[in-house]
Each structure stands twice: as C-alpha cells, then as structure tokens.
Prior knowledge:
The structure holds two protein chains of two kinds.
Chain A: H1 6-22, H2 25-34, H3 42-50, H4 69-81, H5 88-101, H6 104-115, E1 121-124, E2 139-141, E3 144-153, E4 160-165, E5 168-172, E6 178-182, E7 191-200, E8 202-203, H7 207-241, E9 245-246, E10 249-250, H8 255-283, H9 289-315, H10 326-338, H11 343-353
Parallel strand pairs in A: 1-4
Antiparallel strand pairs in A: 2-3, 3-7, 4-5, 5-8, 6-7, 9-10
Helix pairs in contact in A: 1-4, 4-7, 5-6, 5-7, 7-8, 7-9, 7-10, 8-9, 9-10, 9-11
Chain B: H1 15-28, H2 51-63, H3 81-94, H4 103-115, H5 118-130, E1 135-138, E2 154-157, E3 161-172, E4 179-185, E5 195-201, E6 207-212, E7 221-232, E8 236-237, H6 243-258, H7 264-271, H8 275-283, H9 294-320, H10 330-353, H11 367-379, H12 389-400
Parallel strand pairs in B: 1-4
Antiparallel strand pairs in B: 2-3, 3-7, 4-5, 5-8, 6-7
Helix pairs in contact in B: 1-3, 4-5, 4-6, 6-10, 8-10, 9-10, 10-11, 10-12
Cofactor (chain B): FAD
Family (chain B): Belongs to the acyl-CoA dehydrogenase family.
Domain Acyl-CoA oxidase/dehydrogenase middle (chain B): 136-229
Amino acid sequence: MAVLTEEQTMLRDMAREWADNEAPVGAFRKMRDAAPAAFYDADAWRAQAEMGWAGILVPEAQGGAGMGYLSLGLVLEQLGRNLVATPLAATAAATSALILGGSEAQRAEWLPRIAAGDVVAALAVDEGPRFAPERIETRVEDGRLSGTKYFVAEGDSARLFVVAAADGLYLVSGDEGVTRSARKLVDARSHAEVRFEGARAEKLEGGRDLVTQVTDRAAAALSAEMLGMAEAAFAQTNDYLKTRVQFGQVLSSFQALQHRMAKMLTELELTRSVVEGALEAIDSGRANVSQEVSLAKATANETLHLVSREMVQLHGGIGMTDEHDAGFYLKRARVLEAMWGNAAWHRDRFARLNGY
Amino acid sequence: MATAPEIDAPADPLGAFRSEVRDWLAAHFPPSLKGKDNAMSAVEGPHENSPEEDAWQAAMGEKGWGVPTWPSDYGGGGLSRAEARVLQEEMARIGAWNPIGGMGVMMFGPTLLEYGSEEQKSEHIPAIAKGTVRWCQGYSEPGAGSDLASLQCFAEDKGDHYLVNGQKTWTSGGQWADKCFMLVRTDRTKKHEGITFLLCDMDTPGVEVKPIRLISGSSPFCETFFTNVQVPKANRVGAEGQGWTIGKRLLQHERSSLSGGGSAAGRLFAQGTPLAPLAKTFVGEDEQGRIADPELRGRIARHEMDLRAFLATLRRASQEVASNQGPSATTSIMKNVGARLIQERSELLIEIRGLAGLGWEGEGFEADALKDARAWLFGKAVSIYGGSSEIQNNVIAKRILGMLDHQ
C-alpha cells in the first residue's frame, strides 16, 4: 500500500465498506439479470455520486473533491473487488480530458454536472476491436464530427462523449448525428458502437498528445480496478481451497495447489506496487507517466489473466457454473485486458520509450 | 534499463542529520574508493586491502555506521530507520559503500541481539560491527537441506561443554571464517524441539573444512566436519532445545538480505550489463532502430518490467515497515522474485551473445562476457540457497495464506 494521507485512508475504507455492504457481487448479478438499457447499476451510481466519487478528479472550484488519481484508484480498486457496475471509470477518463484540455467555459459547463453525478461521460477512441490510438480516421469539418467508434464503454447512456479525431480530442454533447448500437460483450456491461455523422463537436486543447495523456489516465484507472478484481478473485479462491475436501483432505493441504497460490500472491504484490506507482506518477506530474502506465497496465493484465483463469480451474466444476461468481471475474477480466492496450501493446511501448 | 528508478526526495525533516552525515563522509570516505563495494565479501575470500580500504573500514567501524540501526552500546550506529535511510542516500550520492558486511551483519548479528545473553552480545556484536570477525553458517547437512529440521550433527552434554560430532555442508565462506553459528541436535527423540543453537570457533581442534567446487568453477561453499569438537556451554544461544526457534528467526533475516534488502539486488541490476544495447550489438536493429529479433525484444521488455515492479515493491515494503517489526514472511515473496529475475537476466545475457556468451576462460572473450557466464552458472544457486523457491512457496502458503500443513 502506498503511503496514504488521512483523507485517502478514509476514502479507501469508506469505499470498501460501502462496496461490501451495499454492492456485493450479488448486486452485479441482479443488474445482469435485469439487463437495464444502460447496462449499469443506477442506484449504485447515484449513491456513489452522493458520496462525491463522481467528482474525485473534479477541482473543488467546480464542485468536486480535487483529490487526484491515487484517490480515484483506491475507490476503483474497492469497486473492482465486487465487480460494481457503475460508469465511474469511464466518466473519470472523460473528466481527465476536460481537466487537461478544456477551456474555462467547457470546464464550467461540464465539470459541476459530472461531479454531481448528473452526467455520464464516455471516452471514444478506437475504430476497431483493438486499441490503436495511432489509427484514427474520424474527421471534423466546420465543427461537425464524423466517424465510427467501436466498443465505447458506457456508450449506451453517455450524455457527453470525448471523441478522438485525427487531430486530437473533441467534445460531443448532443444526440444529433449520434447513433448508438449496443454491443453485448461477455462481461454484461455497456459497450456501444457509436456512429457520429456530422455531430456538433468542440475541440479540446492539446492535439494528439492529449489523446496519449487521457488514454494513459484511463489505463491507469482500469489497472486499479483490475488490481481489486484480482485480489478478490484470489481471496475467494484461497477461501474455497480451505473448505473443499477431496481424497479425504482439504484442498489447501496439497502442495501443488499451495505453490500455485504462492505464485499468484507474488504477482499480486508486484502489481500493487506498479499500479500505485502509475497513479502517483500522474498525480505528481512526472515526465515518465507513459512508461509507468505501460508498466502498470501490462502487469495488471498478466496478473488478472492468471488469477481469473486459476479461479475457475481451482474451483473445479462449480467454477464453470453461472451460479458461481468465478465466471464473472473471468469475463470482466478479458474485457478490461483488451481495453486501452493489452499486455503486448504496453510492452512494445515500454520498449520503445526505453529506446530499444 | 541502465539505472534503477529514482527515489523521490520527500521534504527532509532530518536536514541537520543529513548535513552531519555529509560532512563526516566528506572527511572520511576516500574518493579513490568510489563505486567499489563489498557485495561479494560473503562468498569471496579475503583480499589484500589497500591502506585506503583499511582506513575506510576502520572509520565506519568506529562510527558504528556499517550497522547503523544496531544499538550503540554494542558498537552499532544507534540510528533510527529514517536516519539510516539518510545515511544510505548520502553514501549512494557520492558512490560510497559499506565496508562492513558478511553473514555476521546480515543474519547472525540481528539474531544474537534478539536472543543472545548480555555476555554474548558484548563479546560478539562489537567485533561484527567493526568487521573484524568473519562468521559462517553451520545449518545444512548432506541429509538435511530443505528439510533442515532432520539435521543429525550431534552435541552431547559433557557438563561444562558439548562434544560435537557430525558434518555440515554448504558452509558459505567456511574456509575463511573465524567463527561458526550452528544448529546441532541435542535430543534425538524430538525433531524440532531437539535442536540447539551453538557458536563454535573454527580453529577449535576437530573442525575440518573442505571447499566444494561448483559448476561455475568457484568454491564459495565448504563441507565442514566436526570430530569430537568441544564447545563450551557458554557458547549456547538461548536454552537447550530452543535452537529451531532461533534458527528460523535467523533464516528470516537471511531471506530478507537475499531478497535484496532494497539495495543488493538493485545494485546488481543497476551496475550489471544492460540488456537492450547488448542485444542491438549482437542481434542488430531493424529499420526503426528496434532490436531486430522481435521475440527477444518482447522478452527483454517483459524482464525489464518485472524488474521495475520488483524494485518498486522493495521500495513499497520499506515504506510500509514504518511500524517495523523486523523481517516478515513477505520476504519469502521477494526472495523468490529476486531469484527469478537474477536467473532470467543471466539467461538473457548468455542468449544475446550466442556462443560468445558461453566462454569459460582464455583468449577471444570479452571480460564482461566471461564474468556474466560465471555469474549465470553461480546464479543457479540463488533459487536453492537460503531456502529453495519451493520452500519459500511453502512458507508463503502457510504463513501468509494460512493454508494447511501438507505433511
């Protein structure tokens, strides 16, 4: 655990308590079964907004808490543990674009509403099924944006889109010229294809660098959510091994299984260090943010992949059933792994940034 | 990666202490010794010290700063953790290194401070703090490696002394040691409770040492034979039968130091041959200036990222030990990661150079390549000594995860 301020410690404990009491995995299951049009848990989102989490990144002047990315990460980690289905991560990613590249007027218009939880915002970058921020064909002419974005998280309900065009990021806030088509992925969350045809768009300052800065922040936030998921999946597996009896012994007495658990715990320790490292790098404005984010996302991807796969395997047959939660972690894990760069993408960038 | 990620400089509440350290180092550290270190002193024989090295060791020994957090009553520095960190930072800043090292510092000293009698502490700790006495470890036996508690070397109670008979193996630096801390059996009817912790002078009649030659060609370990060796009762640490408890505590200190302790592994990686430039030299570059072999490039990136995560975790751990209860079971995690990374890096160094990386001796090889090849072979030991990776996994499973004993 990073060295936290008193404020951050309180925030983390509160988030953990809330997630455990008010939003256990059972709440996610309920949301999935009910399949609301927004594909998120509206009650949970409202509660989060009331607790101020929608405004964690928003400066105090605009009605937020102005706490930064480590604080956001601490909350997302707790939500990840229980697979809490709210648009917090997506909205935060879009919020970071406004904070970094928004004009006074744009910030004044949007940030207070985001902080209040009245606006779900989404970051729309990719134009294919793989993260490729260098391949953007979306164009803007005379303030009208056209292009198609694949798999936009929370695209079903977003009131505000932050959209990548060839020359940087734009805000699209109206529904004119915007067509959303739900794309159901295995994780039962919102991922819409969003088509923009001459939608009114306002430019954010910062060109292509801003795209990198914002997708880095989105990736760092996801890494924190993934860390929480991996920890919970691991803990549940460890508990299960202590109760399940086979060959007259509890599974946790088998050395082969112990060593697999030890390996996973080791990876979790390393993952926590680099995820916190990336969030702190962003907060303190270090020059090597991209490198730290690639390190965090690649590591979180590998670790969550391992833990989610082992969770199913070590639970045996019960882990294969929909009745059990293991499948939820496995499915959500693969989606988050693919978002904002898979492990290979981030390793490649890490090598490039280091000159080899 | 050529350098370890930088440690951020926080606001410095120890400014006064820092300038005191700075002044003292300026007055005592000979700039000619910059960048040398004692990292291998535990496994290499004593070498002829230059007058500068002697003076540096004497100064640090006198000040107690080779063991900065040990109590000053016994010749330690008496510094707080935070002050010790300042000392470390200031030394790193000017390329100074700690001339006081070895097993006495890493393992035996901390254990004796915890379990030794007043007389034992007064006798042994100051000499360790000054670096004047070398200690070796008498733990493993041919039939007691990972299953250490099945050791058989027997100490028979003869009233005022124990009569020790048996054999130890993997005694690191045994041929150069002055004294040995050892686990012996004092009761054959009990396994763990029959073990006692003794201190033995290596020049006691009946102690015989035979170096073991390793696959790397070096002989850092010995077999040590005990034939009717008389060890005074006063040399027993703790009670008879308490040796397993004390011995396990010492192993935690050992793992803690072998996991890098934050510095040793970091230094090794920071000062070793960097992988990427070497790969470009031997494998070539593509038209975009990347390592020409994409698969190798990916593996190098993966390794460098794991390494950063390891160093970040060591840093995090040291920040978390604010409450500080000494080494914990998480040291097992870091020992395993450190071992894996050292071995991975060695394998990559060999692979990148092709056959030029597999030179044994003689002409036609770069000095670094010969050194890396020997290090590769010796490095196979790091996942075996100090508790093998499998044993560490057992520790992690039982002590951290609360999984069950499988025996």
